[in-house]
């Protein structure tokens, strides 16, 4: 990792239980986006690292070493550069990692016994994959490769299950990577689930006692004799705390799974080194980078202390949202292999009859779910990466509850802004810029000629949006997109494969509960409300881009945005979850669309930005007539939502700032003329 990266500012923090280091990027990461990793070094809260001091230290070390590099350091540099590429692409700087290729190599090769185990495992994998590859080759040679696709896809799924947890996880990743495998194989791998036979209860109870440091009966009055759920990496029990009588969920990691994962990751990366040429040609990146993405995420899932921090971040993000329930973590009872959480007594979100019997309005519940998902993606930049039906519940008061936070993904502030740019470019039908957005997000290598991709993007979007909201769904768009990425040198970054899977899974849940549900009919109002009310300068800029097309003000778009935004507020405020008296009074949801800040910012722009002022005046006098009726129509839409005295007070308060900005703008124009 390059410590001299100018995009990073170091900030150090300390927690009560673990010493943590975090680094925040200049592009504006939110609190939950700062990656936190445990270290064994005690760090003072006031301590800071100076980038310039690092430069001096590094330079002196280089001069002492005389630039000499051993073969080992060359390997480190090579693998580190791949990890740095991931950091740059994500816009997140990670000073301490659980995964690096060097860490994996050192753990696997630390003893003679582990080397023998590695060799044995390598023979097993090569033998099984070799047999499968031979079968594919035979099918191709005899010309029946297309006829037996379904059988071979099923055979691949069974093969991955038999090879163990690392390969099950790899199969789940491949099920969302149309840039790597064909769509028919993806469909089969989507069946691949984490449902595997549980390991013995006594083994699990021993692990819990080791983490607690005391007998089970001193902490719990009872614990379920059967697992509630079993997965490739761990399993879950239900228990009752002795001290408080609260029901909790206990997540226990499978015994001795970490050495298996490290061993398989080493073999994955070794195999990937032989496939770099093919990967570079097909995806525009080397295969080792894909393995590094996978390995980093897998090792994060193995550390339950990281999952506990993920839950804390979600709790912080949704602390003022009365429609979302996140379970509490009992950190004093948790460790790296055991996680104790609040028990969620909810209804599976795939059982519409049970939800109706509980008196929950399904339409309102789905609105809450879609809004929560969009907030995670576009507002927080920290989203649940595995929202399958077993991880989402409907609470009896109408709230949506999430569990299992081992697989979460982060989007930097820059990535979020580019996603919003892509939405704006789609609305404006600017397909060239949409293609450039793909490059900025890491789907295409820098310097790639996007001209062949532009017509394909245009075709996909027009085929999908041309049907209208009634027929639009993410699965149909994804199917067309899969064909695009398979035929062009497009690589889907791991975090965006999770975004795609998350959206598809949640859309599928929506269709299960309400077959005629229109995802975009909820998503559009949320985006409209964000564009109209969010004071973020970047979103203000995107709003202007949406309202002006080819320099012409779009009155109809403004009216549509207001109507959609008001619809979002109405749906959220009328949701059953908001009406429950048991919810804290401090958690409030707005009852009407608040445009005070938007009007204030608009007035400031009108007076200080000559370009905007000219465009607005042209909009009012377009086609040689005053567009008074359009202004009246807009005012009627927001009349009931605007408190004129409040807006007037806010504008007056902002007057000194407007005058200052106007003076600065005038002085800049005078100086530029000279």
Structure, briefly:
The chain has 674 residues and is α+β, with helices and mostly antiparallel strands.
Task: Give your account of this protein's structure.
- The chain is an alpha+beta fold and 674 residues long.
- The chain has 28 helices and 16 strands.
- Strands 4, 5, 6, 7 and 9 form a five-stranded antiparallel beta sheet that branches. A four-stranded mixed beta sheet has the order 8-13-12-10, with helices on one face.
- Strand 5 (229-230) and strand 6 form a beta hairpin.
- The chain is globular.
- Mean pLDDT is 76; it is low at 1-76.
Oligomer state of the chains in this structure? single chain
Rg calculated over all Cα atoms: 27 Å
SS element count, helices: 28
Indicate the structural class: alpha+beta
Largest sheet: 5 strands, antiparallel
InterPro entries: ABC1_dom (IPR004147), Kinase-like_dom_sf (IPR011009), Prot_kinase_dom (IPR000719), UbiB_kinase (IPR050154)
Protein name: Protein kinase domain-containing protein
Family: Belongs to the protein kinase superfamily. ADCK protein kinase family.
GO molecular function: ATP binding; protein kinase activity
Tag the structure with descriptive keywords.
674 residues; UbiB_kinase; 9% strand; 4-stranded mixed β-sheet; alpha+beta
Topology:
Blueprint: E1 8-14, E2 19-25, E3 36-39, H1 51-65, H2 71-90, H3 101-108, H4 112-141, H5 149-162, H6 165-174, H7 183-189, H8 201-212, E4 220-223, E5 229-230, E6 234-241, E7 247-253, H9 257-273, H10 276-283, H11 287-302, H12 304-317, E8 324-325, E9 338-342, E10 347-348, H13 352-357, H14 362-380, E11 382-384, E12 392-394, E13 400-402, E14 408-410, H15 413-427, H16 431-441, H17 453-465, H18 474-487, H19 494-513, H20 519-533, H21 537-547, E15 548-549, E16 552-553, H22 555-573, H23 576-579, H24 596-608, H25 610-620, H26 628-638, H27 644-653, H28 655-673
Parallel strand pairs: 8-13
Antiparallel strand pairs: 1-2, 2-3, 4-6, 5-6, 6-7, 7-9, 10-12, 11-14, 12-13, 15-16
